[in-house]
């Protein structure tokens, strides 16, 4: 079956609208039965189409996958008729742990704790609940510890298309993480001591 350009654009639009989540370029090419470079050309055309001021949606790229979503400026109108989406506020400790995972992934909890200097079970579990971090498998080592990495939700939340777009991390920042973690540990120990005295 021979299709023209409009057919391909319509098919891509239908797939991305229906899926509601990101779809890999290779899967789109497979569905359309055409070359990935050609699919990318049509996706770029769709992106330009949605960039116009009279469109309420946009097409974003997330690490080689594509997703159709609402433009941020439409948010205020959406919440008038939809339930307010779940919002979360990350604490300094969660942000610190998330940045360690983002820059060092795949990484185990033991490696995170080695950098932070304190137990990180609870904070990693919270980041998994927020869908910013996920399990990537197990390390081929004694005990086969779980490996963690960031998710597509992380990319969306921080407005980057891939991990390569994250700013460079220097050693001073790592040392700052360790210092803050030590302060956190000392504060928790002091609180426990005060509770015991009471």
From TrEMBL:
Participates in chromosomal partition during cell division. May act via the formation of a condensin-like complex containing Smc and ScpA that pull DNA away from mid-cell into both cell halves. Homodimer. Homodimerization may be required to stabilize the binding of ScpA to the Smc head domains. Component of a cohesin-like complex composed of ScpA, ScpB and the Smc homodimer, in which ScpA and ScpB bind to the head domain of Smc. The presence of the three proteins is required for the association of the complex with DNA. It is found in: Cytoplasm. It comes from the Bacteria. InterPro entries: ScpB_csome_segregation (IPR005234), WH-like_DNA-bd_sf (IPR036388), WH_DNA-bd_sf (IPR036390). This is Segregation and condensation protein B. Signal peptide: none annotated. It comes from Eubacterium oxidoreducens. Belongs to the ScpB family. One of its GO terms (biological process) is cell division. Keywords: Cell cycle, Cell division, Chromosome partition, Cytoplasm. GO terms for cellular component: cytoplasm. It holds the Pfam family SMC_ScpB.
């Amino acid at each position: 079956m021979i299709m023209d350009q409009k057919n391909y654009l319509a098919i891509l639009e239908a797939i991305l609208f229906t899926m509601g989540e990101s779809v890999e370029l290779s899967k789109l090419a497979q569905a359309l039965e055409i070359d990935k470079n050609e699919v990318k050309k049509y996706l770029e055309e769709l992106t330009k189409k949605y960039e116009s001021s009279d469109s309420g949606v946009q097409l974003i790229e997330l690490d080689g996958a594509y997703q159709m979503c609402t433009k941020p400026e439409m948010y205020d109108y959406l919440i008038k008729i939809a339930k307010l989406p779940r919002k979360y506020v990350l604490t300094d400790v969660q942000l610190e742990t998330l940045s360690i995972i983002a820059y060092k992934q795949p990484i185990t909890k033991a490696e995170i704790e080695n950098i932070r200097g304190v137990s990180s079970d609870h904070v990693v579990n919270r980041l998994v609940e927020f869908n910013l971090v996920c399990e990537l498998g197990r390390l081929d080592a004694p005990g086969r510890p779980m490996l963690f990495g960031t998710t597509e939700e992380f990319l969306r939340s921080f407005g980057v298309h891939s991990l390569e777009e994250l700013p460079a991390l220097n050693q001073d920042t790592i040392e700052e993480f360790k210092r803050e973690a030590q302060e956190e540990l000392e504060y928790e120990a002091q609180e426990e001591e005060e509770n015991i005295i009471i």
